[in-house]
Amino acid sequence: MAQHDDGVTAPDDDAVHTGARTGTAIQVAAERDESPGIGVVQTDKVINPGFPPHNPRQTDLVPAKDKRAERQVAILFFLSIIGSIFALAAYIAFPINPGDFGSIRTNNLLLGLGITLGLLGIGLGAVHWAKQLMREDESVELRHGTRGTEATREKAVEVFTLGNEESGIGRRTLIRNSLIGALVLTPVPAIALFRDLAPIADPVYLLQHTMWKTGTRLTHDPTGVPIKASDVTLGSAFHVIPEGLLQRSDALEQKAKAAVLLMRLKPEDLHVSAGKESWNYDGIVAYSQICTHVGCPVALYEQQTHHLLCPCHQSQFDITQEAKVIFGPARRPLPQLPITVDSNGYLVARSDFHEPVGPDFWEREL
Ligand code: FES
Questions:
Q1: What distances in angstroms separate CA 21 from CA 37, 39, 42, 43, one per listed residue?
Q2: Which atom of ligand 1 is nearest to the CA of 328?
Q3: Whether the predicted model's global pTM rises above the 0.85 cut
Q4: Domains recognised in the chain with CATH numbers
Q5: pLDDT tier at 259 (50, 70, 90 boundaries)?
Q6: For ligand 1, is residue 294 a contact (CB within 6 Å)?
């Protein structure tokens, strides 16, 4: 049985709500001159306990403690400033040297410590400020219309004034100024970090060129042993890298653009377009291994059909037709590396690729 606001007792609240009315409920509804289909509203069983009464803090009662808390907050904000400056100084004083993992570790460690201190100082300072110094009276704001009126504007000003008064941000200049300093300096290390994401050299140039150039020998991947034309038998396929790649400090970045697949077909099986007659050597052809869809390595060669398959999204390229796309999402053929042999019979590049390798990018013209 439940007691309602108006003193009416309902036999079973759940039954009333589900529509399974008992005789008493129908009788109650009839006495209230309601149709039997009207539900009976029950009171909320959970009572809002509200906020506990405010206990004055030490900082409310003792001015010296108030002052000390203020200094503590300011110290935390100053620590944040020191952390941010430290991060910036560490970034400049301990740069990352390519290939030196020790320098990467030191740079990341010091930068991380500085940024941590910068963020922690602001966070702890704000919490300490709120808990020890800001007023914590309970206030009730009744819902009202959102239409802006003069009275609303005045009220807004009042709220801001009250907020200023409660937080003390206008009066406590030490806290305010140290907070502003901390907030201004905190993003500075992030600027340095984001700059590191971009290469120092022109990224478009880097995308358009690889380390292949006239006379660069084709070598086995990963041994770096030069390949003679006579080593490449009919139907064979080689994973190839440029000579000298393994000695470079940016070997991985260069390999990501310069990796090549080398295959030998019967010269009569190749359909060579005008101007590219000299790009193969006696049926030996070299194509970029970087898929023109999204850049996976095209590593599967089907020697019966002379098709190359990219395992990522199944694009297929026909080597007999200058690596034309015959299936899958790739839009462009694999770029061909023009090759020949040097005086010792080793396969060498005639030039770099004549178009950028890999997927499309905005500045790409070919
Ligand atoms: S990356 Fe080769 S098909 Fe998608």
A1: 9, 9, 14, 18
A2: 3
A3: no
A4: 11-45 (no CATH), 58-138+147-195 (no CATH), 205-349 (2.102.10.10)
A5: very high
A6: yes
